[in-house]
Amino acid sequence: MAATYSRARLRVGILNVGFVTVAALVALVFDLPERVLLFEPTPVGDTAGLLTVVTLYAVANAPFDVAGGYVLPKRYGRPYPEPSEFVVGWLRGVGVQSTVFVVSGAGLLYAGRAAGVTGATAFFGIVTVALLVARTYLSRLVGGNRRVSDTDDRLGSALESFDDLKLEPPDVTVYDSDDGSFVGASTYSGVVVPSLWLERLSQDELTAVLARRTSAVETGGIRRGVALAVAWNLVGFVGAVTLVPGAGFADVASLVSLVLGYVIWSFIALLVLPTPTRAGVFEVDARTVDAGVEADVLGSAIRKINETQGDDEERTRLVESVFHPIPSVERRVERLDTDEEPIRGAWNAARVRLYLSWAGLDFLARAVHCNVGRPGVWVILPGD
After folding, report:
1. What ranges do the domains of the chain cover?
2. Is 185 helix (H, G, I), strand (E, B) or coil?
3. Rounded distance, CA 275 to CA 281, Å?
4. Euclidean distance between CA atoms 341 and 27, whole angstroms
């Protein structure tokens, strides 16, 4: 048994990602989509084919979801749902994600048939933008996260403390989630934070993390992160449709060949994008301190948030460089006490890309160690 909960989750994530990636490679090598998905290119045939694909995906991935969402939390003494609650939540999340996959898949088929690669790419871009706009709404549908209208006075006091900072106070929306790893998000329209922060953090720490979310916007980290995520997915989509044998829009089989190529590109992203994402974390941390937040207060908040997520405070550089887009707590706190100038990064690019990859029916979107089996963080993945 792995030594810690975090390492056990990492192993499940590695197995899940490996399973999906190898399955995609094998299916392409042996041309399985053309051999198995024998559906006519008609509205009925397309719908039946897409429903078959998402059902097979859900069934094949279910053992990993059960391990990540129920078995491991229970084994390691972390909060875990009752079996019935897990099943209901999993079915809800899978149902909504499958609906998005079917709608996007059908749209890609029809756009591709009508206007070729250009039309399909345009539709892919439209779905990507729609996913960005609907992110908090889908978070509620998929993960059961709930918007909190009544918050205590500590939030107001924390925002008043921005008078002492070189930052403008953000518009804050509070969400309640059953998953302790839900940390919300920063957007250009405001900041989403979990209700757990209001319970666990002191007022100074709450001010610090709100300032940090504002810094993510002011540094341009969010813009660069989203831009990198969108660009990576678009390049992968066009590359898959033009380079993968049999990929196209003639029928469901050709679309699935495209998707399998896209999955392989997504796997490469899991290895490449953590590096600019980690740089984005350091950049936002440094900007927050420059804005007037005390380094020890921010460091304390970082440690508390890490505890709610169940991550190890320390990890080897090799493990971090390959699997973790968020630097370890010790590296972040250590960096706060230095004058080292951070390089520009792409804040949250690696994990935003996973969510946006729903536009291309990416089977790796919920297979990574931070969200496997946890619908509460399939849309807004765990972050810093």
Report:
1. 5-143+245-265+362-373, 146-221+274-353
2. strand
3. 10
4. 46
Query: What is the DSSP code string of 1-27?
Result: --SSHHHHHHHHHHHHHHHHHHHHHHH
Nearest-angstrom CA–CA distance, 191 and 213 = 7
**pLDDT computed for residue 314 by the predictor:** 77
Whole-angstrom Cα distance, residue 379 to residue 375? 8
Q: Give the residue among 132, 218, 202 at the shortest CA–CA distance from 169.
A: 218
- For 9, the 3-state DSSP assignment is helix
What letter does residue 186 receive in the DSSP assignment?
A: E
pLDDT at 313: 72
> Which amino acid, one-letter code, is at 21?
T
Q: Residues of the chain whose pLDDT is less than 70? A: 1-2, 188
DSSP state of 76: T
Question: For residue 231, how far is the Cα from the chain centroid?
Answer: 16
The answer to whether the beta carbons of residues 27 and 33 sit under 8 Å apart is yes
Q: Say whether 316 sits in a helix, a strand or coil.
A: coil
Nearest-5° angle of CA 41, CA 123, CA 132?
A: 130
Task: Tell me if 334 sits within 8 A of 345, measured CB to CB.
Answer: no
Give the pLDDT score at 36: 96
Q: What is the pLDDT of residue 368?
A: 97
pLDDT of residue 301: 96
pTM above 0.90, yes or no: yes
Q: What 8-state DSSP symbol labels residue 161?
A: G
- Distance separating alpha carbons of residues 277 and 263, to the nearest angstrom: 20
pLDDT digits (tens, 9 = 90+) for 305-335: 998 887 777 788 888 887 899 999 999 999 9
pLDDT at 1: 43
8 Å CB contact between 224 and 280: yes
Largest CA distance in the chain: 65
Cβ atoms of 33 and 276 within 8 Å: the answer is: no
3-state class (DSSP) for residue 236 = helix
